[in-house]
Amino acid sequence: MAINGIASLIYGVPDVAEAKRFYVDFGLTLDREDDKGADFSVAEGATILIRHMTDPTLRENVLERPGVRETIWGVDNAENLDELEKKLAAQGEVSRDEDGTLHTVDAVGIPLGFRVFERNVIAGEHVPTNTVDTVQRWDANRKWYERAQPRLIHHIGYTAPKDDIDTIEAWYVDVLNFRVTDISRGLATFLLADGRQDHHSIFIMDSEQVKAKGITWNHVSFGVENIDELMVGANYLQRQGWGSFMGISRHRISSAINYYANNPGGGESEYLTDIDYLTDEWKPRVWDPRFGMMMWSHEIPDFMNPEPDWDVTVLEGEVPKFSEIR
After folding, report:
1. Rounded to whole angstroms, how far apart are CA atoms 207 and 108?
2. pTM for the complete prediction?
3. Do domains 3-116 and 152-318 have the same CATH topology?
4. 58-91 confidence digits (pLDDT tens)
5. How many other C-beta atoms lie within 10 A of the C-beta of residue 109?
6. Among 274, 267, 289, which residue's Cα sits nearest to residue 182?
7. How far are the Cα atoms of 17, 114, 269, 302 from residue 243, in angstroms, in the given order?
8. Residues 217, 269: contact at Cβ < 8 Å?
9. Does domain 152-318 have CATH number 3.10.180.10?
10. What's the CA gap between 19 and 172, in Å, rounded?
């Protein structure tokens, strides 16, 4: 079985018009809209569906705050989807739509779906970069971007009570064949789908550590070409009045440059570029949360003062449970 990423995210939002306006400004492709909602897509073929939080077609709400009501994961072929259906049925209730999409819940009740998803090949462009010892660009400016246009979904994130994180992690590993790629000590666990290589497909964060309650939708991360496209997108969002809780920075834990924009439909939506890609030889690490979170930021937030200790440990052998790491 290979889960190859996120095929669709279905939001339940308090204000459809505002959620639609945000994703238009964010740079997603608007494919359909009516008085009930709006459908967006990105180049790889994944979709973002906006619906009002009272829409009767939505799955049961288990979240403490608005956000994505169901994540539809992509599976590489029909045979593997059938095998997954058997595996899910052994864990609990699972249903199948007429279009072949499976529906179930994870170990703590978060609604999930699964369908065959053939990711589109993304047409990117190598943008030549000049460094102090290597010149790739002569007699030309660097590529100019007018707007950001996200091409793929890298990952999603939830918060959950710390007592549930071991349960969630084990379910994704044992049932869906995800693997733990890194652990932020006492804060979050990072998990990668077996059909992907871009550092993590989902992460689960301790609600209490970010002043949340219960299970909440946290964010979705969209891939863009490079830091220039990311910043052009961020500037455009700023001009349209959309804010950010942190601004631009680079994570140490995944190397990714990031910009989190506050989404009126719930949580944040992230522009991301230059993330680490992993092979089967990768060994998970345990990080001090502050050290792993940020290598630099355009403006240092209060929690990053003073400079964090350089604290990261490579794990050898079996990965311990999130709660066992001290």
Report:
1. 14
2. 0.96
3. yes
4. 999 999 999 999 999 999 999 999 999 999 999 8
5. 11
6. 289
7. 17, 33, 11, 18
8. no
9. yes
10. 29
What single-letter amino acid sits at 303? F
Within the chain, strands assigned E span: 3-13, 29-34, 37-41, 47-52, 67-75, 95-96, 102-105, 111-116, 152-160, 179-184, 188-192, 202-206, 216-223, 248-250, 257-262, 268-273, 285-287, 296-297, 312-314
Q: H helices within 156-226, ranges in order?
A: 162-176
In tens, the pLDDT along 114-127 reads 999 999 999 888 99
Nearest partner of 235 among 255, 218, 256, 259, judged by Cα? 259
Domain layout of the chain by residue ranges = 3-116, 152-318
Residues 6+ apart with CB under 8 A from 105: 92, 93, 111, 112
SS3 labels along 22-67: HHHHHCCEEEEEECCEEEEECCCCCEEEEEECCCCCCCCCCCCCCE
**Class of the CATH-defined domain 3-116:** alpha beta
Query: Residues 48-60: pLDDT tens digits?
Result: 999 999 999 999 9
Q: Say yes or no to pLDDT of 317 above 60.
A: yes
Q: Which two structure tokens, joined as six digits, stand for 139?
A: 């007699």
134: which DSSP letter?
-
Dig out the tokens for 108 from the structure.
């703590």
228: tokens are 């220039």
